[in-house]
Structure formats: C-alpha cells, structure tokens
Amino acid sequence: QRHLLGIEPLHPVEITAILDKAEEYAALNRSAHKQSDALKGLTQINMFFENSTRTQASFELAGKRLGADVMNMSMQSSSLKKGETLIDTALTLNAMHPDLLVVRHPNSGAVNLLAEKVNCAVLNAGDGRHEHPTQALLDALTIRRKKGRLHRLIVAICGDIAHSRVARSNLILLGKMENRVRLIGPPTLMPAGVAEFGCEVYDDMKAGLQDADVVMMLRLQKERMDGGFIPSEREYYHRYGLDAEKLAHAKPDAIVMHPGPMNRGVEIDGTIADDINRSVIQEQVEMGVAVRMAAMDLLARNLKASRAGEG
Ligand code: CP
C-alpha cells in the first residue's frame, strides 16, 4: 500500500504484518534505548484540523523514535484561517517534499481527497465519521495480546456507533479477522446499513454483552451530532453506561476498552475504567505508539521501493 487511509482496503495478511511489526516496536519502546533509524532522513508532517491528545502525541513520538524530522503544523494559526483551502494547503506542504503526511480532518473523505493530490505517503489520523485506521489497529494489537488471538472472539462495541469512525474501522477489521461483532446502542445512535458488515445489533446492554470477550465503550460524539437528538447524560448512563452490573453479563475474563477521550459517569463508570484487572485502556495508549511506528515504517519501505523503481 502507498497510503494508510482506512482498514477497508487492507487484506488480513497486511493487518497481521502491521501487528507483528508493532510487536517489535512495543518491545523497543519498553527498552532503555527507544531509537530506530527506520525513518532516518525522512520528513513527517502532522496536520491536525481537529483536536487530539493521543493520536497526535503518539504519531509525533513514533516519528521521533524512528529518526524522522517531524513537524507539527499548527492548523489554528495556519493560512486556512485566511481562506486557503485544504487542497491548497496540502499542495503547499507537498512542495516542501515531505515523505509522510499524517492528517486528521473533521470531514469524512477529506484525507482520501488530499492523498490524491500529493506525492508522499498519507496516513489517516481520523476523518469525520469515516475511518480511524491506526485506532483499530492498536485496538486489534491490544486484543491479540490480552486474549492470545484475534479471531473467533465476541466483541461488543457499545454506545454512539452512528458518529464513530473508531466503531467503523473496528467493525471492518474485526470482521475481516473472523470475529463476531455486536453493536449495542440506542436506535437513534445506530447507523442504517450496519447489518451489511455482518454485525449483530442490540439496543439492550445486558443482552448484547452476554458472554462477550471484549467490551469496547465509545464516547457520545456531540461534536458530530449536527443539531440532532442528544440524549440526556443521566438517562444515557442509566441505560448504556458500563457499570459492574452490566459488565457481569460479559465473560468473567472479558476486557474493557475505550479509545479515549473518556467521559466518566456518562459511557463508563470511573471505577471500571481504573480497574487494572478488567480495563486495558492504558495498554491501548501504549500500543498506539507501537502501531504508528509500524505503520510508518512499512509505508516508508514501500515509498523507498517505489522511488528506487522510478530512479
Ligand atoms: N482515540 C483518539 O483518537 O484520541 P484523540 O482524539 O485524543 O487523538
């Protein structure tokens, strides 16, 4: 692949290759010397048109640990504020010869559009409600490490499915790897057409969580609700917030995941989020750096090979 724009175009063999490479980087990140020279001499530009803590920090750290020159564009103070378009901004940066562009954008499809206009590798760091491929890959790595496999598991993805690029990328990846995916949430937050992905749909948490191996909670993404129906947080927590009573319906060794940012007392009880026997939320963050190192390493190899072929 030239870019990493989504999970949809990836073959299971490619997914496994990224996870295996990420395992190597997870070990490196735990060592005293965290450096590699996989991206030495290459330039990485991070363009975040939407807020981020985990994804932006881990892409920056990943690039630096791989030896790249990393530049974080401050989109708040860029010439976008003077009316420059996304494409003109991208073409301007492209003229500076970056090798890797990491892009987060509030509009679905914006990163794919940008990738058509530049001649470097583009990594999607989340576009609207479309895809967040590195999040799904880091979730997959976390599941594989905790459960010892990434197939024939029952994975319950719970909450605001309709507005979630994390849910979309995860259900595509987990389906490709032959897991049973259950989507649980209020009908108002369930997108039409999810059945075509082979998911089971529930509006009752206890029924949906029955015998689940993995429980993945999602935030209410109010910023994407466009003036539509927003449930009251109190009522939402009562029906869909993960507490000990609801979690008791999953398998006794079920793991609890959350991509962050997390709203305690809305979609998840804080004591469950902090329970080191069930919650793997901090491990997800740790795997985020390793997966982003792996993805950039593998894309850089493809980039170097295609440039060598052209030369
Ligand atoms: N999970 C995730 O994308 O978090 P950030 O918005 O903080 O990057």
From TrEMBL:
A GO biological-process term: amino acid metabolic process
Matching SUPFAM superfamilies: Aspartate/ornithine carbamoyltransferase
EC main group: transferase
Domain of life: Bacteria
Pathway connected to this protein: Pyrimidine metabolism; UMP biosynthesis via de novo pathway; (S)-dihydroorotate from bicarbonate: step 2/3
Annotated residues for binding of L-aspartate: K82, R165, R219
EC number: 2.1.3.2
Record PROSITE patterns: CARBAMOYLTRANSFERASE
Pfam families in alphabetical order: OTCace, OTCace_N
Aspartate/ornithine carbamoyltransferase carbamoyl-P binding domain residues: 2-144
Reaction(s) the record says it catalyses: carbamoyl phosphate + L-aspartate = N-carbamoyl-L-aspartate + phosphate + H(+)
Residues annotated for carbamoyl phosphate binding in this entry: R54, T55, R104, H132, Q135, G260, P261
Domain Aspartate/ornithine carbamoyltransferase Asp/Orn-binding per the UniProt entry, residue ranges: 155-298
GO molecular function, one term: amino acid binding
Stored InterPro entries: Asp/Orn_carbamoyltranf_P-bd (IPR006132), Asp/Orn_carbamoylTrfase (IPR006130), Asp/Orn_carbamoylTrfase_sf (IPR036901), Asp_carbamoyltransf (IPR002082), Asp_carbamoyltransf_Asp/Orn-bd (IPR006131)
Keywords recorded for this protein, A-Z: Pyrimidine biosynthesis, Transferase
GO cellular component, one term: cytosol
Function: Reversibly catalyzes the transfer of the carbamoyl group from carbamoyl phosphate (CP) to the N(epsilon) atom of ornithine (ORN) to produce L-citrulline. Catalyzes the condensation of carbamoyl phosphate and aspartate to form carbamoyl aspartate and inorganic phosphate, the committed step in the de novo pyrimidine nucleotide biosynthesis pathway.
Assigned protein family: Belongs to the aspartate/ornithine carbamoyltransferase superfamily. ATCase family.
Quaternary structure, from the entry: Heterododecamer (2C3:3R2) of six catalytic PyrB chains organized as two trimers (C3), and six regulatory PyrI chains organized as three dimers (R2).
UniProt name for this protein: Aspartate carbamoyltransferase
Organism whose genome encodes this protein: Pararhodobacter oceanensis
